[in-house]
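Lab meeting, action items carried over

1. Structure of the four-component assembly. Owner: GW. Status: complete.
Input record:
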Amino acid sequence: MKEVRIGLIGTGYIGRAHAIAFSQVSTVFQLQGKLVREMVAEINPELAARRAEEFGFNRSTGDWRELVADPNIDVVDICSPNFLHKEMALEAIKHGKHVYSEKPLALSSADAKEMVEAARKAGVKTLVGFNYMKNPTAKLAKEIIANGEIGEVVHFYGTHNEDYMADPLAPIHWHCFKETAGLGTLGDLAAHIVNMAQYLVGDVESVCGDLQTVIKERPEKEGSSVMVPVENEDQAHAMMRFSNGAMGVIESSRIACGRKMGLNYVITGTKGSLMFTQERMAEIKLYRHDEPANRQGFKTLLVGPEHPDYAPFCGGAGHGIGFNDQKTVEVRDLINGLAADTPIWPDFEEGWKVSRVLDAIALSHEQGRWIQVQEL
Amino acid sequence: MKEVRIGLIGTGYIGRAHAIAFSQVSTVFQLQGKLVREMVAEINPELAARRAEEFGFNRSTGDWRELVADPNIDVVDICSPNFLHKEMALEAIKHGKHVYSEKPLALSSADAKEMVEAARKAGVKTLVGFNYMKNPTAKLAKEIIANGEIGEVVHFYGTHNEDYMADPLAPIHWHCFKETAGLGTLGDLAAHIVNMAQYLVGDVESVCGDLQTVIKERPEKEGSSVMVPVENEDQAHAMMRFSNGAMGVIESSRIACGRKMGLNYVITGTKGSLMFTQERMAEIKLYRHDEPANRQGFKTLLVGPEHPDYAPFCGGAGHGIGFNDQKTVEVRDLINGLAADTPIWPDFEEGWKVSRVLDAIALSHEQGRWIQVQEL
Amino acid sequence: MKEVRIGLIGTGYIGRAHAIAFSQVSTVFQLQGKLVREMVAEINPELAARRAEEFGFNRSTGDWRELVADPNIDVVDICSPNFLHKEMALEAIKHGKHVYSEKPLALSSADAKEMVEAARKAGVKTLVGFNYMKNPTAKLAKEIIANGEIGEVVHFYGTHNEDYMADPLAPIHWHCFKETAGLGTLGDLAAHIVNMAQYLVGDVESVCGDLQTVIKERPEKEGSSVMVPVENEDQAHAMMRFSNGAMGVIESSRIACGRKMGLNYVITGTKGSLMFTQERMAEIKLYRHDEPANRQGFKTLLVGPEHPDYAPFCGGAGHGIGFNDQKTVEVRDLINGLAADTPIWPDFEEGWKVSRVLDAIALSHEQGRWIQVQEL
Amino acid sequence: MKEVRIGLIGTGYIGRAHAIAFSQVSTVFQLQGKLVREMVAEINPELAARRAEEFGFNRSTGDWRELVADPNIDVVDICSPNFLHKEMALEAIKHGKHVYSEKPLALSSADAKEMVEAARKAGVKTLVGFNYMKNPTAKLAKEIIANGEIGEVVHFYGTHNEDYMADPLAPIHWHCFKETAGLGTLGDLAAHIVNMAQYLVGDVESVCGDLQTVIKERPEKEGSSVMVPVENEDQAHAMMRFSNGAMGVIESSRIACGRKMGLNYVITGTKGSLMFTQERMAEIKLYRHDEPANRQGFKTLLVGPEHPDYAPFCGGAGHGIGFNDQKTVEVRDLINGLAADTPIWPDFEEGWKVSRVLDAIALSHEQGRWIQVQEL
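Predicted assembly:
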């Protein structure tokens, strides 16, 4: 069986999630390729070595450039802070590596576009880690829509709201600066819901957005009285039109008190509706208008082995899968796509399209008008 | 005790709700005035007489002009189709009557403005029947916000979605024509959520909206193959900014499959949040960010005698009040305001302000730009 | 139209609910008889007069015996404390009056049996105020079961839990004494869920119960340090078998922290299930096992005009009815039954059967064995 | 670091779950020992070899007796059908192995007692796979109770209901026979909720139960018309008293239409309550009666890094963990307990106590009386 040798850059919170997925994926799924946990790169060699040990990788390095150049690496997995994605991906592509990058693909759609072009020219495969569209409920929603069970989609309402920055005394960090993060909550969180919208409804054609930085400065560090300006938005929302004519609204906030994983959507069709919240990730609610008037209602489908991608994890509905299991589905798609040379999605193209929508929202806010995303 | 003699015009669905409220209000509340169910007007005298009998009114007439001119009427209660509100209200005001009108106040904000002016000049009191802000949960939400329990409001998301026109073969009716209804779902449903937004957050300063007529024609009547064009929007949404700086989004649809009473709001503050849906009208969810991190969460408050306006109906939380009970609170406010000569709210001024926001949304859609509501 | 003249005894919490129902019922429903609010009795004539005024009754008295003997009363409505029900009902029956009594019918099933016999001999009609089975959702549940939509019922789980006595310093009151209340939470609350079980599943054949007085003494009055023993149970549960072979469990508590109106049921059939909680009185959840495995789930039916008894109150699903509206349905059944001389339910016979089940549970606890309810 | 070498017997549904846990545990947690996936045993050598490959184990065998005797195995993990647990565990203990067994420990409490004694004499450590008490929400519930946040526990209501046998034409299998399964739904499902009750409330002292076989015969195999008698109960419930005086009810069913993972509990204390359902495994609802009356309500805690055992999996609340993650916590406890020679729980003693409660319930049903569990 063909080997797929992974080089992982970055071992923070999301790097760990990747590592967990790598550790279990071969037991969960019967993969078409043989995953090899080859090398870990971290900012210093000691940390890299420790993580390699913890994560079950063969080798480690304190220099990511060494990793991307290593001949025994097939795919470079980028879990570094956002502002490094572009440089690392381009370098990896230069060495002919396939690239698996965390979202957002880059700090701007222009940068993302460059990355798409580079990958295309090099003929390498790409995957962006949008996580939540790998939840079986998302594929189920897509299947329900494709079957026509809710008719034509006419409205999409989606959010990705969290409250990790709700406390005004939460110290500043790299997410708050243009140079290191680009956009604020749009880049960090809204990327997920835009990807979900495009997955479930189709391409976004035009947008009109509004952004706001509510907490204008934050302590330099925990407990400090030195205040540093926040450079990007805490909350944003936008209206949109999809290429199929459907209307949409998305919301995103990093200060939305009480929303811990507020990736939610409500999809309205001409014959029914779907409702979902990631906080109850095992459930999706389906309403069909063609049922008798006295028996209409939202039905709660609890994801189970009859639904996509679930059975390899658990024997019964209600047992439940978690965040890392989503990543495990994502990794399965990566390994199978590389081993069998078949398309992988969401790829850099999708990553760029998401980024373009986000940039269009920001531009719309600046200019106070609707923006056709193709303007960018 | 001062008498407050009611003249009710219109006895359809909403007129019945008023009648039920009139029938029970004196038993539920210790009113400051004596409510007298004086006269009913309907389109023909027989129907008027029958309704007077059913609704417990003393007299009836087939001519609403007779009612508004009657010297033994103190307040004219307008429950006729929307396009008649203005004419009837102006005529009532001309006769010096106080006016209790169903929403929307008029088919346009210009018309509503005329009505406000007329009432002001005549020195009569006015009340608009927005129903849902009389739910004890709304007053409780207002109290929670006023107490600072969720800090400063930074975001409002509100909807009034229903599905009463979701079936494309549901026949055309007066709600679908400009001449009889003005706006579509905005005028019929969004009026409620705009009123709620202004009640809970404050005045809307600017808006940017999008509207769509999804089902472009409908059968002339049940089962007919003659199709008639729909003249106003089936669905709409808008971004807004409030005068206190908060951002907002509202949505409205009359084709939102599965939403039967989708008057919902999520209010985000700097220290907490509130969530509500009228389909679970006895509940409001409160989140406070200042609780210990391992004990944070949305708490479901079940409305009860410790909350505003509930105890006169029921002895305990969870017993529950209904739609007509909201109208009963509204009628209490009417009677007490008239008997004691104190302010009543929401008055025509608020009705006009709601109408102006809705017109601004429609104008924004036409012009593809943000509109300051004061432009209208 | 035949007159039905009401004599109301008792104007506390539940008497008020009756009064509200009387005030609105003729507007809501087209009754078969003409309801007349004739006379109110209270413990002293001043209070009686004040209540008659507030409740819209013609006359009043400080002596209930005068009321039951009055020739212009057709039906005596008993809203007094439980220990007076029997005496008042028997006296009313002696005068040939129909009787509408609040639950529990009496302090023991033996007493209840006497009342049933007296009513039968006198040929008067009776009604017991079980409230919650008049919720449209209950009739809908009965219809769903009767249609076979959930197959044969095999299991019933029901509760009536509240927390009105959860605070150990809540002062003693008449509910806590054998002489004035008989049983504790069983008589006060479980009566409702037993009635619901019998309504929806059928007669209870045998029971096995367990009772407990958790808070053994309470302050004589608010803030007092004089403690008085509690004489009956704070919490209880029982297993049961129904005459159709189904198994059941009921629970009841007056100290169930957080349950404000915990009248809940889960009914399991061979082909589906129903779930309900009175705290969300407008909803019932229906599951059908014959749906495709990947589309199974509990569907939330929101009660609306397509369901029983709802349309006269409101024009649309989700508008919602409240506690007093349930009482209004109950009063409609009373007036129509008396005016048209048709059966009324739940009558004293049902009241007695409920009481017998409760006594059997208490006896089972004393004897530590299953009890056939026919033993009593 | 000390090695802990695993020998896994059985690779069906639950064996796979163990394998997944073994594959990821070292990446998720920093273990105190080095887990080695040493050997797999299956019914035939080919299957065993294939599973060893899939599950990442070093060796395999078609004979479990070879595995339990192998000197390079430290712990025998028993994932075989229930009726084999006892023989395999005793044989493993005879060879001085530690034992990790799936529930139920044995087909009867007498058998379980033998296993407890054997393990004690041999001085080996034991663990029973009860899964759900390793959900972080369970440890959180225990912490909340231990803190006194809900006062003294006075009532426990728990269920483990599923519907995997609800279809009367679902073919017979080993779960339905006394010889292979012992009890029916009690042994298969109720074991979990009894374990949870003992974990959260304390030892069960006495029980009174009722059992029923609703579907008395089933097809020999899918589609067959040959019917085979079902030998054990489809549904059961029991009342119980705990050693601390609290009352309890448990329910269990394998034909409870719509319940896919109906492991639920409601715990009532003198100062508050907790509610949980495994179908929403990331949430637990907490009510505190000492909050102001107008701000009381159930608060939904969404499990996150501030709660026990969650942070190693995910960076934020709402990301969510799944069934296999619970098993991963269980395996962590196993490895750490063996490596550090510290107590592991739930051990065989707890497995036996659960089994004794279940046997007492069945005996109570036969004899129609309360049973002290110490009678067994």
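2. GW to write a short summary for the group page. Key points so far: Residues 133-315+353-367 of chain C form a domain with the Dihydrodipicolinate Reductase; domain 2 fold (CATH 3.30.360.10). Chain C has a mean pLDDT of 97.
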